[in-house]
Write a structure and sequence with these properties.
about 0% strand
């Protein structure tokens, strides 16, 4: 970099910190280059001279720290002492502020100490001695403590940032030797503060001291056997932050910001202590510390156990400490169930009770309380640990012990899943509502864990709560939230009760059918509809309850809850299709009425078509055409009108996609061949979908012609036809010729992903049918030839523009060669071009073409030995395949895609082992190939590793990944 003018540099810094983001972006690169230049060692000091602006001084300190972190090797050994003195002088200079600059200088000194521990072995001791004993003139005591604590706190963090993993292990052991001194120093300071009044400066330093302890524990480690004293001090500090503000008669009971920050820092540091990686090795000490937590903090949680409490932050941190302690020491706590030790048993009981109280925190999450969500993971952990116990006797004992606990929890969860009512929801934001939605899902999952413990007994509990709720509704008929929560709870455990003879579920079904929904919030109806859908497997075995379920779902179709109604009806028609036969016609009429009402959203109309298809499948063959006319007819009429008027507008595009989606959904579900004992009459009749398609195939062609440039319209049309093929399978045969004409017509105008997909589906389903084989062979040839035309017309540098089509093309061919390799053995298909474009796909930056190109080539190579023409194609192109694969691994493919190329090498090694050796050696002879960063010895080793690995795919992937790292010059980064 050219010589840096200090004035220009200062101007750039001011622009960077005081201007808009656009101007910042322009100066950022230049400033970064300046920071990395060797001149930065000089100008960093100049920028920190007195009289400079705060931004300039800060940039100077940041630059110094950056150089110390990344460019320590530029400092001559003989300059180390001078550098130390200059850093200390600057720290003293900025002792009176600005603190922003002083903080960065303290971190710079920490980085210097980390580098210098080898030759300045007493660095940490010297820092403590210098600043603790007030050896800096003209700097007050509190500021000297501030500086000392900043430096000490940053040492572990700088150690993590500066050194590679190899050096870090050695350095960490060296730094760990000073941990007792640092802990002793901070402990003594904090203990002294407990005896005095606190001002703002005192709060600042105490918080800093506690953070220092936490940082050393987290990054360096300090055995919990030595942490009892500091734990006691941190707990006392927390209590001293909390209780005075609570006990003030004229106060508001709220902790100040300083008190909150100090208490939170203390609790987070206690958390770091109790969850240290080796802490489970000291169960007795862990027991003592957890008991200390409970003895000291439970009164606070008790005081704050109320809705809209004043000091939620401290309670959140306390409960986090309790839950994390259990998770880290779960085996110790579980032994509290089976132990004969009353103290351990008492500890378990107290801790679990606290977590139960956390779960049951008054108020609705997250607006009125924010604690209860953190307890959900514990309830999974507890039952999981119990059921994972190897000793059966102990497992059964623990299981019996936790049953009452989970029974109590079930009631709590019903209560906590209550939604806000109409009066309180006004103060909720969209983020609050989303958080509550996720929270309810967590509750639903936790109900499942309760079921794992309680089994059918959970229904007794929920039924009892339901009875209580209904009784309460007699006095307060509009209080819907508890009833909704109770129904939601039943819904959460529905999957466990398919067809059992259980009295509670019939009671639930009766309640759902009797609720006066018109007098209550519509959310209650929404949950009821979802619950009916959840119990469809049970309804299949208990069909007498289907009529009231249908009545409820139809009611939902004509409400604001139509989304839930269409989902529930879809589940019912899918799971109970044959049981729905007696109700099919009236239900179809109800569905039709809802469709033409115009009140449903497009997505709900589309979903409803699935149920309509299932219900139509139940009708006598003679009745189906009439329903097709009145329900499906309007879809095709609108589509035909749009096509005839040549009306291409954004609105007609949306309507076209909507109508095609309705048809597509119907095609996926309308199938009169139910293949059950209770078969529908007239099964020999032609499938209704075929009748529709025979009449409407011209409309599909018109749609394709009109919207040929709109890929989403083509995709929707092809999806409709694909659903028909997949649904009807062999019954689709009469329409196959028309389908092929439709596909080829699109191919002749545009080769695109949707037509490739539908072609592949038809070929895979019908190729083995002798009557269709010739037609499918022609379709495959057309698929390949039209794709080639697209590839040939695309400029070499523009293949990324058709990456989606390339991806789907090779995905389709991979499926075909995997399932029908003989189909590709056709003289009309040029294997050399297939291979050429697959290699082209592998070199694109997009992940999709790389993946499918590799997959196709791998399967092509594996199948090729069975077909002489394919064998010759591989022999002709083999060296180019290997050359491209190695080049992709070495420098072209995104690094996360490198391992995928293992499939090509394994396939080649399996089918062409001798040739692979020759091809690899040949391509590796090229100088600077794949990059100049790998020498001949490394290339030779790579060839040996590739040739040797014939079976272990994972090991081969590792070899490729290692070679990619070397070829790309990333060795230092990934060492």
């Amino acid at each position: 970099m050219e010589s840096i003018d200090i004035s220009r540099l200062e101007e750039a810094v001011v622009v960077f910190y005081r201007s808009t983001s656009q101007e910042q972006a322009i100066t950022h690169d230049w400033l970064t280059k300046a920071q990395t230049s060797p001149q930065a060692w000089q100008f960093s000091w100049q920028l920190m001279e007195l009289g400079k602006s705060q931004e300039v001084q800060f940039f100077g300190a940041v630059t110094l720290h950056s150089k110390l972190m990344k460019y320590w090797h530029e400092v001559p050994r003989e300059n180390h002492d001078e550098l130390k003195q200059k850093i200390l002088e600057k720290i003293i200079q900025f002792a009176c502020g600005p603190k922003l600059v002083l903080n960065r200088l303290c971190i710079a000194l920490s980085a210097f100490i980390v580098h210098m521990l080898g030759e300045w072995s007493t660095a940490i001791e010297d820092v403590i001695n210098t600043f603790q004993n007030e050896q800096i003139p003209n700097v007050n005591k509190e500021m000297q403590l501030w500086i000392m604590l900043e430096v000490l706190q940053a040492i572990p963090e700088e150690m993590q940032a500066i050194f590679t993993s190899v050096k870090r292990t050695t350095l960490r052991a060296e730094v760990a030797k000073r941990a007792p001194l640092v802990m002793e120093t901070t402990e003594a300071y904090l203990k002294m503060q407990l005896e005095r009044e606190w001002d703002s400066e005192c709060f600042s330093n105490m918080t800093r001291a506690v953070k220092c302890v936490g940082t050393w524990v987290k990054h360096i480690g300090f055995s919990i056997e030595n942490c009892q004293n500091i734990t006691a001090i941190l707990l006392k500090l927390t209590n001293k932050c909390y209780w005075p503000c609570i006990q003030e008669s004229d106060g508001d009971g709220c902790m100040s910001a300083d008190e909150n920050e100090l208490a939170e820092t203390c609790l987070k540091t206690l958390l770091s202590i109790i969850i240290q990686p080796d802490s489970h090795s000291y169960p007795k000490t862990a027991f003592i510390l957890i008991r200390m937590f409970l003895d000291s903090l439970c009164e606070i949680t008790k005081m704050e156990w109320k809705r809209d409490n004043n000091n939620e932050d401290i309670v959140v941190n306390i409960y986090t400490l309790f839950v994390s302690s259990v998770e880290r020491h779960s085996q110790l706590l579980l032994s509290g169930i089976t132990t004969t030790d009353p103290d351990l048993s008492d500890l378990y009981g107290r801790l679990v009770n606290e977590i139960l109280q956390c779960t049951d925190k008054p108020g609705i999450y997250p607006v009125e309380e924010s604690c209860s969500s953190m307890a959900m993971g514990f309830w999974y952990l507890l039952q999981d640990e119990v059921f994972a116990m190897h000793n059966e006797e102990e497992r059964i004992k623990c299981w019996e012990y936790i049953k009452p606990l989970y029974a109590h929890l079930t009631r709590i969860l019903v209560h906590k899943s209550e939604q806000p009512d109409e009066n309180s929801i006004e103060k909720w934001t969209s983020d609050d509502l989303e958080s509550f939605r996720c929270y309810r899902q967590d509750i639903s999952d936790t109900f499942m864990y309760c079921y794992d413990v309680l089994h059918e007994y959970i229904l007794d509990i929920l039924a009892a709560v339901l009875d209580e709720t209904i009784a309460e509704l007699q006095n307060n008929p509009t209080q819907w939230t508890k009833l909704e929560a109770c129904i939601y709870s039943f819904q959460s455990v529905a999957e466990h009760f398919a067809g059992e003879e259980l009295k509670q579920i019939p009671k639930l079904m009766r309640v759902l059918s009797e609720i006066p929904y018109n007098k209550m919030n519509e959310k209650l109806l929404g949950t009821a509809l979802e619950t009916v859908g959840s119990y469809c497997q049970w309804l299949k075995e208990n069909p007498t309850y289907i009529p009231p379920a249908i009545e409820l779902l139809v009611r939902g179709l004509n409400s604001n809850m139509s989304a839930q109604a269409t989902l529930g009806l879809k589940e019912l028609c899918c799971d109970c299709q044959l049981q729905m036969k007696p109700y099919a016609e009236p239900l179809l009429n109800a569905c039709h009425t809802s469709l033409i009402s115009g009140q449903m959203k497009n997505s709900d109309c589309v979903r409803l078509m699935y149920s309509i298809g299932k219900l139509m499948s139940l009708l006598p063959a003679s009745n189906i055409p009439n329903y097709l006319d009145i329900i499906v007819g309007p879809c095709f009429e609108e589509l035909q009108t749009i096509c005839q008027n040549d009306c291409k507008t954004p609105a007609t595009r949306i309507r076209t996609i909507f109508r095609l989606n309705m048809i597509s959904t119907l095609f996926s579900s309308l199938n009169t061949d139910l293949d059950e004992d209770d078969n529908i009459e007239d099964l020999e009749n032609i499938q209704p979908v075929l009748i529709v398609m025979q009449k409407t195939m011209p409309i599909f062609r018109q749609i394709a012609e009109l919207w040929v440039e709109e890929i989403d319209v083509l995709e929707t049309a092809c999806t409709a036809l694909q659903h028909a093929i997949v649904n009807l399978k062999s019954s689709f045969r009469p329409m196959l010729q028309d389908l092929c004409c439709f596909i080829v017509a699109i191919f002749q105008t545009r080769c695109c992903a949707p037509t490739l997909e539908i072609s592949k589906t038809a070929i895979i389903i019908f190729y083995k049918d002798e009557g269709c084989k010739s037609l499918m062979q022609q379709l495959l040839v057309e698929l390949v030839l039209h794709s080639f035309k697209l590839f040939e017309s695309t400029p070499e540098n523009a293949f990324s523009n058709i990456a989606d089509t390339i991806e789907v093309f090779y995905a389709c061919l991979m499926q075909i060669i995997k399932k029908l390799p003989q189909a590709l053995d056709d003289k009309a298909i040029a294997f050399d071009r297939l291979i050429y474009y697959a290699l082209k796909a592998m070199t694109l930056p997009e992940n999709g073409p790389i993946r499918t190109g590799v997959q196709f080539l791998s399967h092509f190579i594996l199948q090729s030995r069975n077909y002489p023409s394919m064998t010759q194609a591989v022999l002709n192109a083999g060296e180019e395949i290997i050359r491209t694969a190695v080049l992709c691994v070495g420098c072209i493919a995104p690094r996360q895609q490198v391992e995928k190329f293992a499939d090509i090498f394994m396939a080649t090694n399996k089918k062409y082992p001798a040739e692979l050796v020759a091809w690899l050696k040949s391509v590796m002879l090229v100088p600077n190939y794949p990059t100049q960063l790998v020498d001949e010895a490394e290339k030779s080793k790579f060839v040996t590793l590739i040739i040797r690995e014939k079976v272990n795919r994972r090991l081969l992937q590792k070899h490729l990944s290692d070679f990619a790292v070397k070829s790309r010059g990333l060795t230092d980064k990934f060492q």
